[in-house]
Structures are given as C-alpha cells and as structure tokens.
Amino acid sequence: MTSPQALGPVVRRWISWAGLFGCLAAGVCVSSSSLSGLLRQRDSTGAQARAEASQQAAGLITEGQRPNPASFTAAELRELQRRFGVHGPQPRLAQLFTKGVDQLTPLRHHTVGRLEDLRPVVLRESRRTGINPMLLAAILFDEMQHAKPGEDLPLAAHSGLFSTHGPAQLGLSEMVKQGLLAPDASQAEIEQARNQLLDPDRNVTLLAGKLARLLKLLHRDASSTVDVSNNPSHAKTVATLAYLHNGKLDYPTRILRYMQDQELHGLLFSQHKKAISPLI
C-alpha cells in the first residue's frame, strides 16, 4: 500500500479532505491506495483519448476505425514523388475558391448536363478498360466544374496559353506517355494532337487510357477501382489514381465524394428513355 507521505503534501491534504467528507457522507473512509488507483486509471484513460484524437486529427482513422484512403503517409508520398512527381496540397485560398464554386447550383446543373452528353462514351470506355465508370464520371465532373473560361476554344488552346485541354484536362505529355505522340513531334502533329484533346469523346478515351496506364504502373488491376465504398484497398487505389491524375493532395477526397453522389449515379445508371409525344 502506498503511504500518504509518498504522495506529496498537496495530494495528502486532498486525501484528508476527501476522506473526511466521505466519512461524513457515508461513513466510509477513502484509502490512499484506492485513490492512487483511481488517479492512475484517469491518467491512462486521458492518454488514450488524446492519442485517438491525435490520430483522427491526422486523418489516420475515420468512423468505424477504417483507414482514410485519401490520407497518405510520408513514406507513400516520397515514393509517389520519386516515381510520378507531386505538387502537394492546393493553396488555402484556392481551396476556398473551389468550395465556393461547388456551391453554385446553376454551374452544377450545367456541368451535369455536359456530363450527360458524355455518358455513352464513359460507359463504352468503362466496358473497354474495366475501369469503374463512376471514377471516370467523378474526374470529368470535377474537371469540368472547375474549368477555366475559354480554355477549350481552339484559338486559345493552340495559342499555348493553356497546358491542359478538354473535359478531363489532359495535356500533350499524356499523349506522349501513351505512345500517341512522338516526343519530337512536328508543329503540325502537335496541332493535330491538341485537336484530339479538344474533342470531348476522344478526351474521355484518353482519360481511360491514362488511368489504365497508371494502374499498370501501380501493378493493380482495373477491378480494383470498383466496390470502393466497401473495400478499403480499392478505395486507396482510387485515391492514388485521383492524386496522380491531378497532382493535388486534396483532390482524392473530392473524387471519392463525387463517386458517392446520387445525382451522378442516377445519370450513369438510370434508364434513359425518349419522351413520347402525347400526339402519337
């Protein structure tokens, strides 16, 4: 049993008062050893709570103790930087601007309408490559939602003012990586390649090709992009693909959120029937 002298004058005084009031209230005296045990239990519980809070703040765990797929360790980031290059998180002001744009309902409706026009080619490329169509749709939605005004105009594109083009915001470098454009291409070949990037259907095909190329480099199969909500490993693969496509650390979170968007789900998977004229 721990002696009261070993607990220090302040704790001894506290024990004395606690014991006195305990005896007065219930006729039971509190022993110093019992009190020390309670104090140790309290400290242990507090340390555990602080550790859990620290983990949650760092994005290491989420509800249900499931790892956050959009959270990358320092080692993972170093490896991705070594192999693919990395830009890091979007500046805070740019993040606020992005969130503000996402709240504009008319813009969202316009983007959904553009995505609906691309629905046939999205489903076609999904069947061709095996890539989850919701991943393709989520990337296209985000890129079109935050596109810069005028960047898809041929005059602006061929001026060299913009480095990426089309619904998926792809550049000439991606066509080089897919073997569709020579590194030392002539000016005429570069202009033809830009025209391909500006063609919406062709742009979606190139996006699917880019994701398939990255999956091969990651040694992952296209099937690892499906069942994202139930399979943490697949969710991590999708988050990595999204990060490598855009190069910003806050991008995977948006893509995973769009993949769960009910309106986008309905756009891709609901039955589309032509309205029959009431005169027929």
Low-confidence stretches: 17-32, 51-64, 93-98
Beta strands, count: 0
Distance between the termini: 95 Å
Q: What is Rg?
A: 29 Å
The largest β sheet comes out as: none
The ordered H/E elements are: HHHHHHHHHHHHHH
Overall number of domains? 2
DSSP helix fraction: 55-70%
Helix segment tally: 14
Strand content: under 5%
Commentary on this structure:
Helix 7 (133-145) crosses helix 13 (251-258), helix 11 packs across helix 12 and helix 12 crosses helix 13. The chain folds into two domains: 4-57, no CATH class; 69-269, no CATH class. The termini are far apart. It is globular, with a radius of gyration of 29 Å. It has helices at 9-26, 32-57, 74-84, 92-102, 105-117, 119-129, 133-145, 154-158, 172-177, 187-198, 200-217, 232-246, 251-258, 262-269. It has 14 helices and no strands.
Ordered list of secondary-structure elements with their pairings:
Layout: H1 9-26, H2 32-57, H3 74-84, H4 92-102, H5 105-117, H6 119-129, H7 133-145, H8 154-158, H9 172-177, H10 187-198, H11 200-217, H12 232-246, H13 251-258, H14 262-269
Helix pairs in contact: 5-7, 6-11, 7-13, 11-12, 12-13
